[in-house]
Recover the amino acids of this structure.
């Protein structure tokens, strides 16, 4: 399996990165998700990647860049819906946590082996005053009204695995950008008249961050490739479990390491590191946390 990006994928990566740099600077990330940002992402084709003919491996490349920019919002969910509307996927068992409820076009409810579309205005939920991630406002509901049957073109398990793969790609982007932030700060921050990056302890931390990121990158790219070839290759589910596990752990571990590299400043609101770490914590709960994917991967390997 060739995991090198093709020329078209490199162009796609550079194009989405350039668009995000221009339209979603860190100040806008701090402002959170809203209807205007959703519309810009919709116009850029983020929500309709599969409908527009892009492969899963291409979508993985796009979501890696979204993670690098820490773009807020239920991006994976909206892409899974695939018709251009902003969506959030939730289960039907309480407590039900809904992301960005006020900015959604549709709430997709997973009921066992099927999905239903529910109007967000029909949902009674209490907003969380202090969400873990300031860019991810959350609301809590105890039950949900019945919705309209929703055909997403695949069985529920496959759709949820696709969500895991795209979430892993976003987490990879978080891990990659956190490594860059830590290395850049280690080069410029002086202690004892020397850059702190010259100290062995800091070198080891940054090296570990890079290794975690590159291992996760291989797993995430492999998951995208396996998804595109799932009719011909076995094990695409195992590849998603591995990607979500490795990318999720890399994003969280790199967030903690970057906070340490920044020292006392790493805990402050002004430093961007906390935005990435908090997003990593939130995304670890989406489409299966790391421990669940680890257990699923172990069962798949044993089988």
């Amino acid at each position: 399996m060739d995991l090198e990006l093709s020329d078209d994928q490199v162009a796609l990566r550079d194009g989405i990165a350039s668009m995000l740099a221009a339209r979603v600077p860190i100040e806008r990330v701090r402002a959170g998700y809203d209807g205007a940002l959703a519309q810009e992402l919709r116009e850029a084709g983020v929500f309709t990647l599969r409908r527009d003919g892009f492969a899963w491996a291409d979508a993985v490349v796009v979501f890696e860049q979204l993670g690098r920019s820490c773009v807020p919002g239920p991006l994976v969910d909206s892409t899974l819906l695939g018709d251009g509307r902003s969506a959030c996927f939730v289960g039907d068992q309480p407590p039900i946590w809904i992301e960005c409820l006020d900015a959604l076009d549709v709430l997709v409810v997973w009921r066992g082996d099927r999905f239903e579309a529910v109007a967000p205005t029909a949902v009674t939920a209490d907003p969380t005053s202090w969400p873990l991630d300031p860019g991810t406002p959350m609301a809590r509901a105890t039950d949900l009204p019945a919705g309209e049957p929703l055909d997403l073109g695949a069985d529920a398990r496959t759709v949820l695995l696709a969500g895991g793969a795209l979430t892993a790609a976003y987490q990879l982007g978080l891990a990659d950008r956190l490594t860059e932030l830590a290395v850049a700060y280690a080069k410029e921050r002086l202690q004892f008249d020397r850059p702190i990056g010259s100290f062995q302890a800091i070198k080891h931390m940054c090296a570990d961050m890079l290794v975690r990121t590159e291992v996760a990158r291989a797993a995430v790219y492999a998951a995208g490739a396996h998804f595109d070839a799932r009719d011909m290759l076995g094990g695409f589910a195992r590849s998603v479990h591995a990607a979500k596990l490795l990318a999720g752990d890399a994003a969280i571990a790199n967030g903690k390491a970057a906070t340490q590299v920044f020292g006392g400043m790493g805990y402050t609101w002004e430093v961007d590191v906390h935005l990435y770490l908090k997003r990593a914590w939130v995304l670890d709960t989406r489409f299966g946390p790391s421990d669940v994917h680890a257990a699923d991967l172990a069962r798949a390997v044993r089988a």
Observations:
- Residues 7-80 form one domain.
